[in-house]
Write a structure and sequence with these properties.
With 233 residues, this protein is of the alpha+beta class. The chain folds into two domains: 195 residues, Nucleotide cyclase, GGDEF domain (Alpha-Beta Plaits, 2-Layer Sandwich); 36 residues. Strand 4 and strand 5 form a beta hairpin.
């Protein structure tokens, strides 16, 4: 076993559970659709990013952390995964018009979300499978369950975001029992459903605003008091 710093990438198909559970009679069609979407994403993956495992509606990738240049490559590649997903979905929507089962009729409702994180992970060998594990891997998976209402977005932890030269994104926070508060940056990729900030994120934004402007507020309050005393005199 060895410990290495890695980039952790998780792609999750939003609406998968509902898509499958509502169409038990059409399970074969539903699974075939999900499989094609997963394969489209995996086909877009380029070295040194490695496909790690598929768990239901999510696929995990990783790459050994060699610095900001690779972080930027990871960030750029993940955008390509979204485009591969969208292109495949469009083709499936066209192909599925000949079938009127609920699964084929609702393929266009599936969305994609991505989690990007960086941290140390333990590498173990199980038969021919190289497995990654550890608290940072758990953190990345926990971030899939968050308070974001948009179904299609890219969420980066602060540790990852600070390594790239991406566009300016507004910070937020997610809180988890046992993990505490995790600073994150969110890029919404669903124009039809804007992100709604979580209560934790709103509180964090207010705290940052007050901390940044506390001195200015103090000076302003002092000036107002001084003017008030002058008027009284």
């Amino acid at each position: 076993m060895e410990i290495k710093s890695i980039f952790i990438i998780i792609l999750d198909i939003s609406g998968y559970t509902r898509f499958i559970s509502q169409h038990k009679m059409d399970l074969l069609h539903a699974e075939s659709i999900i499989t094609e979407l997963m394969e489209a994403i995996i086909d877009a993956v380029k070295a040194p990013i490695i496909t790690h495992e598929i768990l239901g509606d999510a696929v995990t990738f990783y790459a050994e952390n060699t610095g900001p240049q690779l972080a930027q490559e990871v960030y750029n590649q993940v955008h390509q995964y979204f485009h591969a997903f969208w292109n495949c979905e469009r083709n499936l929507v066209s192909e599925c018009t000949i079938c009127h089962c609920p699964a084929c009729s609702n393929v266009g409702q599936l969305k994609l979300k991505a989690i990007l994180h960086v941290g140390e992970a333990a590498f173990t060998q199980v038969k021919d499978i190289r497995k990654i594990s550890g608290s940072e891997v758990i953190t990345a998976h926990r971030l899939l369950k968050n308070s974001i209402e948009s179904d299609q977005y890219l969420l980066m932890t602060r540790a990852f975001y600070q390594m790239i030269d991406g566009e300016e994104l507004e910070p937020s926070e997610e809180a988890y029992e046992g993990l505490g508060t995790i600073p994150v940056f969110i890029k919404n990729l669903d124009p039809d459903k804007p992100i709604k900030r979580s209560p934790q994120g709103l509180l964090a934004k207010i705290r940052r605003h007050l901390k940044t402007n506390l001195h200015a507020y103090g000076r302003l309050l002092g000036l107002k008091k001084a003017k008030s005393y002058q008027n009284m005199a």
